[in-house]
Amino acid sequence: MMDNNTVLRTIPLVLVLVLFLLAGCKKDQPEGDSIVPTVSDANQEIQNMFPPQESTTPETMENHMVHITEQTTCPVKDDPIDKAIFTEYQGKKVYFCCQECMDDFEADPEKYLVMLPQFAIQGSKTEQ
């Protein structure tokens, strides 16, 4: 059993330990660095994502439309396509990552059309 002297010496040590734990430790952070991005950081990021465009002409729009309508991912699993695995739907090639995905598409093509860029643009020169 502990005597009174030991108990009296232990209480301040326990209190100091509790205060230290409650206060926590401050992490060193260099001055001026902020974890939260500023508005100007966000604006710069947006400008980097969308650089100024050249004038929009029918020719440049057609070039952008060709790029937009190029399929790069499987409409079923959203994985990269294998150009050797494809089917034709409404006169357009639809590519897949595997045979299983092609079978799923052929069972219910309408379900996956929203994932296909070649069916997203209506009214392009090729359809008029």
Question: Care to describe what's here?
Answer:
There is one protein chain. About 40% of the residues lie in helices and about 10% in strands. The protein has four helices and two strands; from the N terminus they run αααββα. The protein has about 130 residues and is an alpha+beta fold. β1 and β2 (about 90-95) form a beta hairpin. Strands 1-2 form a two-stranded antiparallel sheet. It has helices spanning about 5-25, 40-50, 60-70, 100-105; strands spanning about 80-90, 90-95.
Task: Write a concise keyword list for the protein shown above.
single chain, 128 residues, alpha+beta, two-stranded antiparallel sheet, 2 strands
Topology overview:
Layout: H1 4-23, H2 39-49, H3 58-68, E1 82-89, E2 92-96, H4 99-107
Antiparallel strand pairs: 1-2
What is the 3D form? elongated
Radius of gyration: 31 Å
User: What do the pLDDT scores average to?
Assistant: 76
Low-confidence stretches: 123-128
**Largest beta-sheet details:** 2 strands, antiparallel
Annotation, overall tally of beta strands: 2
Outline of this structure?
40% of the residues lie in helices and 10% in strands. The chain is α+β, with helices and mostly antiparallel strands and 128 residues long.
